[in-house]
Amino acid sequence: MKRLRPLLLLGMSLNAQAQVEEQLQYQYYDVTIATGESLRQALSQASTIRQNGQVYHAYTRWDVTWNYWWQEARDGRCRLTLSRTRLSAQVTLPRLGGGDARQRQRFAQYLQALREHELGHYRIGQAAAADIDAALLATAESPSCSELQRHANQRANAVLQRHVERERDYDRDTGHGRSQGAWLAE
Question: The whole model's pTM is what?
Answer without folding.
Answer: 0.87
